[in-house]
């Protein structure tokens, strides 16, 4: 007897080898593009141990690959942020945990994400970064409502300044101007003062 499920289109999950290839290409793109934003796709494929044809089969174009890379990076970052349980404790404590998570993120993520989103509209860029920025905005609002953070500066400005200074810390670390610990300490001290939350 023919059932409805027999007539429905097959929705098979991607095969495990296809998923491995896709993941390998994304990781290779992060590695290659962090060092050379203009690297061609053949180099990315070679680094992944795969052919350029396989890369195009998965992503269709350079733009498709970059979109996948950005979504991978933001997904990984969002997972780290969720694990930090930012809803617990005071807003100041949550901010410190957020900054610690941000500081532990590979600097390659920041460089590649900047390359991948270059030329995007402000709205598109904001949408891509929402999983990372929204939790920070929630901390800022909570801290201002509780009197822990200054209200002399708008919440949106504090959030934007936090992200910009975080990128600056990653950049100085990647250039060898600061060690990871120095960059982390400088970022934390600067932002706690900016927020009016005192020093460590």
TrEMBL record:
It comes from the Bacteria. InterPro entries: Homeodomain-like_sf, HTH-type_TetR-like_transc_reg, HTH_TetR, Tet_transcr_reg_TetR-rel_C_sf. Signal peptide: none annotated. Residues 40-59 bind DNA. GO terms for molecular function: DNA-binding transcription factor activity; transcription cis-regulatory region binding. Residues 19-77 form the HTH tetR-type domain. Gene3D superfamilies: Tetracycline Repressor, domain 2. Keywords: DNA-binding, Transcription, Transcription regulation. This is TetR/AcrR family transcriptional regulator. It comes from Nocardioides seonyuensis.
């Amino acid at each position: 007897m023919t059932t409805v499920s027999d007539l429905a289109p097959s929705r098979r999950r991607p095969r495990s080898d296809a998923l491995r290839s896709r993941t390998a290409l994304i990781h290779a793109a992060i590695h290659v593009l962090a060092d050379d934003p203009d690297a061609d796709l053949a180099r990315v494929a070679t680094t992944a141990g795969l052919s350029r044809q396989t890369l195009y089969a998965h992503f269709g174009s350079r733009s498709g690959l970059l979109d996948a890379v950005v979504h991978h990076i933001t997904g990984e970052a969002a997972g780290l942020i969720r694990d930090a349980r930012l809803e617990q404790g005071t807003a100041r404590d949550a901010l410190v945990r957020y900054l610690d998570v941000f500081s532990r993120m590979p600097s390659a993520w920041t460089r590649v994400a900047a390359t991948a989103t270059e030329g995007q509209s402000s709205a598109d860029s904001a949408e891509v970064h929402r999983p990372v920025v929204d939790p920070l905005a929630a901390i800022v609002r909570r801290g201002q409502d509780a009197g822990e953070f200054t209200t002399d500066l708008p919440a949106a400005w504090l959030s934007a300044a936090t992200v910009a200074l975080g990128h600056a810390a990653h950049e100085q670390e990647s250039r060898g101007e600061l060690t990871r610990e120095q960059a982390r300490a400088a970022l934390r001290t600067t932002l706690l003062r900016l927020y009016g939350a005192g020093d460590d």
